[in-house]
Automatic annotation (TrEMBL):
Gene expressing this chain: hisS
GO molecular function: ATP binding; catalytic activity, acting on a protein; histidine-tRNA ligase activity; transferase activity
One GO cellular component term noted in the UniProt record for this chain: cytoplasm
Annotated localization: Cytoplasm
Source species of the chain: Apilactobacillus bombintestini
The protein, known as: Histidine--tRNA ligase
């Protein structure tokens, strides 16, 4: 019997995991600069958390959710995205309370699950890094969130990106636009895909998001939501675009963009690349927007929110395709060779002492001959090779070779165990 990982999942192996850690650390450091704090929510939630928020007609809810009934007959879903769970936690733990500083700025990173057809940059278990900021309706916060995403991608060495933005306006905007869209689409009813036929009256905005090429031809002639904005919605959008201009962030307005989730209003955005690594045309790496009704929808007060989610697998495909250099991994400071059984035991004490001082240190664990151990030291690119033989054991010393210049000295073993840094500074 041979076991294989489930379709659409990946093993992240040593060599790759360092790249993941680098991305995660870069994100954590940057989010800290913007004063966002980490939140960790469960990997599964009650089904309703997602069905209520993502939209009954969205692809996620209709096709992509991993949901099941557990042994207690609870309807459970493996989270397909991060926002709904964070909002659920925000409400349940009353993070909107009078004691919390507003806006409440949160970030998360972790696995998400969607039943999709696996392909490059599209998995069934994938990972997102995301942020959510609650409690301010200011367009400045929309712009901060966009700027932070752009900043993160820049820090990771990606500059060649397209930022598309749009607005879904407020409730009144959407009611008026919904009507206009239905009026436009109805005469095309017979030409639409089955999904779009189904969605035309339930949620016509979804039709704009269709990936069906024939639907897209029809959508190209659809009215623009920008012609239906209320004064408030127009003001909000003008402020966002104005601030993006002020910050020198280049974007284009795409009035056909609606995003795959139902909970957005006002600003929505996608950050895209046309790198071939992610397929033909433009692929979205990071997407987000404002969701002012969502906290209320999940039983909380009227608190607004805005955030983004970034796909880590797609980011990595892009970084590797662009040949972006990752920082060198954990270099080896010292390899300790023991020439006899007694010396090997002493070598173990030395590596432990070095590690306790914060150095990376390793030794042989396979009872290998000295020659093989020296080979390892070379192969692992150790900065120093330390050797203990019978003579060293007798006079309490250790032989130390600087692998960069070949210099060799004999030193007191306690100096290595107690202050290796000082010893290196004095001796080399
Ligand atoms: P798409 O239109 O490509 O299906 P989406 O609109 O479903 O994307 P979002 O729900 O906005 O995607 O998720 C935000 C980001 O998460 C995406 O831009 C992408 O980088 C990543 N992502 C979404 N689904 C997957 C997946 N199945 N595999 C890998 N990454 C994904
Ligand atoms: Mg999708």
């Amino acid at each position: 019997m041979r076991y294989q990982r489930p379709k659409g999942t990946a093993d992240i192996l040593p060599g790759d995991s360092e790249q993941w850690q680098y991305i995660e650390k870069t994100a954590r450091d940057l989010f800290a600069n913007y004063r966002y704090q980490e939140i960790r929510t469960p990997m599964f939630e009650n089904f309703d958390v997602f069905s209520r928020t993502s939209g009954e007609t969205s692809d996620i809810v209709t096709k992509e959710m991993y949901d099941f009934h557990d042994k207690g007959d609870r309807h459970i879903t493996l989270r397909p995205e991060g926002t709904a769970g964070v909002v659920r936690a925000f409400v349940e733990n009353k993070l909107y309370g009078p004691d919390t500083q507003k806006p409440v700025k949160l970030y998360y990173m972790g696995p998400m699950f969607r039943y999709e057809r696996p392909q490059s940059g599209r998995l069934r278990e994938f990972h997102q890094i995301g942020v959510e900021a609650f409690g301010s309706e200011s367009p400045e916060l929309d712009v901060e969130v966009i700027a932070m995403a752009v900043n993160l991608l820049k820090k990771l060495g990606i500059n060649d990106l397209r930022i598309a933005i749009n607005t879904l306006g407020d409730k009144e905007t959407r009611a008026a636009y919904r009507k206009a869209l239905i009026d436009y689409l109805e005469p095309h009813f017979d030409e639409l895909s089955d999904d779009s036929k189904e969605r035309l009256h339930k949620n016509p905005l979804r039709v704009l998001d269709s990936k069906d090429p024939d639907d897209q031809l029809i959508v190209d002639g659809a009215p623009s939501i920008l012609d239906y904005l209320t004064d408030d919605a127009q003001k909000h959008f003008d402020k966002v675009t104005g601030l993006l201009d002020d910050l020198g962030i280049k974007y284009s307005v795409d009035y056909t963009m609606v995003r795959g989730l139902d909970y957005y209003n006002h600003t929505i955005f996608e950050i895209m690349t046309n790198s071939k690594a992610l397929g033909e045309g433009y692929t979205t790496v990071c997407a987000g927007g404002r969701y002012d009704g969502l906290v209320n929808e999940l039983g909380g007060p009227e608190v607004s929110g805005v955030g983004f989610g970034l796909g880590v697998e797609r980011l990595l495909l892009l970084m590797n395709a662009e040949k972006i250099e990752f920082p060198a991994e954990n270099a080896l400071d010292a390899y300790v060779v023991g020439i006899s059984d007694d010396a090997s035991l002493e070598a173990l004490k030395v590596v432990q002492a070095l590690r306790a001082q914060g150095f990376t240190a390793d030794k042989d664990y396979l009872d290998r001959k000295p020659k093989a151990q020296f080979k390892s030291a070379n192969k692992l690119n150790a900065k120093f090779t330390l050797t203990i033989g019978d003579k060293e054991l007798e006079n309490h010393s250790i032989h130390m070779k600087n692998m960069a210049d070949g210099n060799e000295i004999s030193v007191d073993i306690d100096d290595v165990k107690n202050d290796f840094k000082d010893l290196v500074n004095k001796s080399f």
